[in-house]
Amino acid sequence: MSGGANSLWLTEWLTSAMDLRPGMRILDLGCGRGASSVFLHNEFDVQVWSTDLWFDADDRRRRIVDADAADAVFPVHADARALPFAADFFDAVVSIDSFPYYGTDDLYLGYLARFVAPGGQIGIAGAGLSADFTGAVPDHLAPWWEPSMACLHTAAWWREHWARGGVVDVECADTMAEGWTFWRDWQLEVAPDNTVEIEAITADAGRHLGYVRAVARRRTDVALDEPITTIPTRYERHPVFRTDPVDRP
Q1: Alpha-carbon torsion, ordered 73, 79, 82, 88, to 10 deg
Q2: Distance separating alpha carbons of residues 81 and 91, to the nearest angstrom
Q3: H/E/C letters for each residue in 77-112?
Q4: Beta-carbon neighbour count of residue 26 at 10 Å?
Q5: How many of the other CB atoms lie within 10 Å of CB of 60?
Q6: Distance CA 134, CA 145 (A)
Q7: Which tens digit of pLDDT belongs to each residue from 88-145?
Q8: Please, which contacts does 159-163 make with residues 24 or more away whose CB atoms are closer than 8 Å?
Q9: Distant-in-sequence, close-in-space partners of 134: CB < 8 Å, separation ≥ 6
């Protein structure tokens, strides 16, 4: 999967449904090269922890410096499943076109919510399904489809997935109107040789592919489970077999 549209288009669309204010601390999770992180700082006057696993933090730092944002955008190299932050540290989390790679785990939202202050928002936007299909992949998508794309879901799926854990209130879950055209047009602009994807998106014409977003707010009345990192045990010597003496050296 190419990653779809320009990350700034998606960031602008997502943040139009969020309540970001100057001075907030924002986790930009799966930020790639950091364009969305700089955008968040410039548009909302927030501090941004620009966090990604796949893209080099030193390279991102140079981009941030060139964008005159080094005093407020901080590059971090980290796995989304092993975040190096304190509980309740962030006022909001933003994730652009990366969340499906790790966030479909039933336990992940509860883990991520620990890093957001009670009442803070979590927002995601990216490639997804405008409508589910059952059984085999539709013929017009099959030449492009890969098994890993099973992580793509509809906005309705994300609403249910987040709501069932009980740790957030879902405020928004929807699909971008004519989002498939933005996906196609961006590919035509930056990767015109990517004909397999372009033809699949064009043939689909929004029947199944598009952009989805979801925004939720961490509930203030729910205590989150503490993460299990170790299980304390104490060894007591016992005979392995009934005939073994307990005091055998």
Answers
A1: 30
A2: 19
A3: ECCCCCCCCCCCCEEEEEEECCHHHCCCCCCHHHHH
A4: 27
A5: 25
A6: 14
A7: 999 999 999 999 999 999 999 999 999 999 999 999 999 999 999 888 999 999 999 9
A8: 159/214, 161/104, 161/106, 161/109, 162/109, 162/214, 162/216
A9: none
